[in-house]
Sequence to fold (667 residues):
Amino acid sequence: MIDISVRQALNEAMAEEMRRDDDVFLMGEEVGEYDGAYKVTQGLLSEFGPRRVIDTPITEAGFAGVGVGAAFMGLKPIVEFMTFNFALQAMDHLINSAAKTRYMSGGRVTCPIVFRGPNGSAARVAAQHSQDFSSWFAQVPGLKVLAPYSASDAKGLLKAAIRDPDPVIFLENELLYGKRFKLEEEIIEPEAIGVAKILRPGSDVTIISFSRGVEWCLEAAITLDQSGTSCEVIDLRSLRPLDMKTIVKSVKKTNRLLIVDEGWPSMSIAAEIAFRVQDEAFDYLDAPVMRVTSKEVPLPYAANLEEMALPNENKIINAIGSMK
Amino acid sequence: MATENPRPKLTQSSPSLMASNDELIKYYSEMLLIRRFEERVGQLYGMGLIGGFLHLYVGQEAVVVGVENAISRQDPMITSYRCHGHMLARGEEIGRVLSELAGKASGSSKGKGGSMHMFSPENGFYGGHGIVGAQVPIGTGIALSLKYRRLSNVCFTFLGDGAANQGQVYESYNMAALWKLPIVYIIENNQYGMGTSTARAAAQTEFFRHGEGLGIPGIQCDGMNVLAVRDSALEAASFVRAGNGPMIIEMNTYRYRGHSISDPAKYRPKEEVKEVRETRDPISQLEQVISERGILKAENLKEIDQKIRLDVRNAAEIAREAEQPASSELYTDVYATQAITDD
Ligand SMILES: Cc1ncc(C[n+]2csc(CCOP(=O)(O)OP(=O)(O)O)c2C)c(N)n1
Ligand SMILES: [Mg+2]
Fold:
C-alpha cells in the first residue's frame, strides 16, 4: 500500500516523464529555485537543471506564447500557472494559438503542450484569486481539459496529458494538494483521457462532480446512505472529452441526477451535462436534473459570505433531500 | 517627437531635505502609522482574525508617504495588492481598513474585498489589484480621463519590480507617451518579485530606463528616504503637469517581511534584511533628522508612537467586535440595480 499526496503524485508524474523524454521541460513562475509556489515542482530543478526547469518572469502572456512556440517545434512543454487566475493574461495563446493551430494548418503544425496549475476556489483569497474556469476551457474545440480529484488520477492523467499530442489544460486544486490517498500499487502508466470513474456505486441517485467537488459528494453520499438514500458518485476526471456513456448508463440505473459544479451556474459544466442527459436519457429521468454550484457573484472575502457562495456537502444533502 | 522631451532636473543624489519641522513630524507620523498598522495586522493574522493572502508594506513606508506629500488627493493613485499603506496614506480611516482585513461589514469594501482589494475613491485611491501588472493600464486609463476632462491632475501608478516586466506595462508606456498622458509610474523596486530577485527576472534591472526607447524620462530615487521620494515626485509631477507626457520613477526600496505572510523568504540571507533595517530604515533615518535638528525630544517621539499604537489597537478592537456582513449582502454590488440570482 502506498500513501501519497496529490502534490507528490503530480511531482512524480512530471519527474518520471522528464526522465523518460528529454523533449519534456517545465516552465513557470517560481517553479525552480523556489521549488514551486505550492511546492508541486519541489526538487525538479536540482534533478534536471536550469535547461529543463525554467524560472520565468511574471509574464504569463509571454511565457505561454513561448511555450506554444516550443511545442510547434516538437518539444513538450509543461507550463505551470501559479494559479489559473493568472492564466487569464495568457488566454489569447491558450485559445487562439494552442487550441487552433492544428486545425488552421490542416494538421501540419501541432501543439503538444500542457498548461497546468491550481484552479477553483482557495480559502479567503477573494474574487480575483478564487474562481473555477473549468467551463471556460471545456468549451473550446482543440483543447482537452482534465480536472482530477484523486492522487492516482493526478499522476496517471498528468502523464497522459504530457504524452498527448494536443494541448491539454490540466486543472488542479490548491486545497487538494495536501490530501493523501492510499494506492494499491504504484502508478506507472498514463491513465486514459476521457473516461469518468464511478467512485461509489449506488441505486437511488447519481451525483456527478470533478476536482474538489468530488470530495463534497463522497462525504454527502456517506451521510445520505445512513438515512437510506443510496448515491452513485461519478468523478468526471475529464471535462473535454466528456464521458457521456458512463453518465447516461448511471442515470438509466438511478433515474435521478444531481450535478455538483464549483463554477457559476450560468453556461456551466452542470448546464451542459443536464442538456445532454435530457437529450440522451429523457425517458429515464424520474425528476428534473438538479445542480449545486457557486452563487452568481464574484467570490466575497468575508468568511460567512464565502461559505454562502460556494457549494459544500450540506448543500448537496439538502438538494437531494428536496429532489422529487 | 517624444525623444525631444526635456529631461527634468532632479536633485536625487543630494535631496534638499527641505522641510519644515511640522512637515518632518507629519511624514514621520504617517510612516510610523503604516509600520505599526502592518506589524499589528501580521499579529492579527496569526490570531485568525484575518484570512487569505496578506502582503505587508513594512520597509517601504517612505515611498507612499513621500509621494502622497508631493501631490493632492485630486491626483489619483492606484497600486497592487500591497495596498494597506496606500489606503492609510490617502487618509482612509484606520478602523475601516482593519475591518476590511477582518472581513467585516464596517470594512472599506463592506468585507467583500479583503487585503488585496481596497479602494478609497473619495480620496483618489483606485485599488488594490490582485493580478500582477493589471493596475498599470488601468492607471493609464485614469490618466486618460484626466486629460480628456482637461484637468491638470496627474495619476500616480505604483507597480513592483516584478510587475515591471509585464507586457502590459510596455503597452501602457507606449500609449502614455504617444498620447502624452499625465501619469507618473512609480516602480517600487523592493528587489524581489516573490522569491525572484530582479537580476533573475529582468534583462535590464535599471527599471527607470525601461521607457527609454519610447522617450519616457526616468529617474532613480532612494525610496528609503522620504524627502528624496517627495522631491522626486514633486519634480515628476510638475514635469508631467506641464503636458510633457509620462515619467517613470524607480524607487529603490526593500520589504522586510516575506512576500506574503506565508513566505519564509529563504531566497535571501537574513543579514541582507538586517543590514537594510539597520542602515537604511526610512523611519529611523527621519527620527535621526528630527532628533539632530532638536525638533522633538526622544520622549515626544515616544508619545507619538504610543498614540499611534493606541489608535491601531482601537481599530483592531473595532474590527474584532464588528458584525460580519449581512447575508443579504451576498448579492448586492454585483450590478448597479438588481442582481441576477439563480435561486
Ligand atoms: C498575473 C499574476 N501572476 C502571478 C501572480 C502571483 N504573484 C502575486 S505577487 C507576485 C510577485 C510580484 O512582485 P512585484 O511586482 O515585485 O511586487 P511586490 O510583491 O514585490 O510588491 C506574484 C508572482 C499574480 N498575482 N498575478
Ligand atoms: Mg518586488
Summary: The interface with chain B takes residues 29-30, 33-34, 37, 55, 57-59, 61-62, 85-86, 88-89, 122-129, 265-266, 293, 295-298, 300-305, 308-309 of chain A (CB under 8 Å).
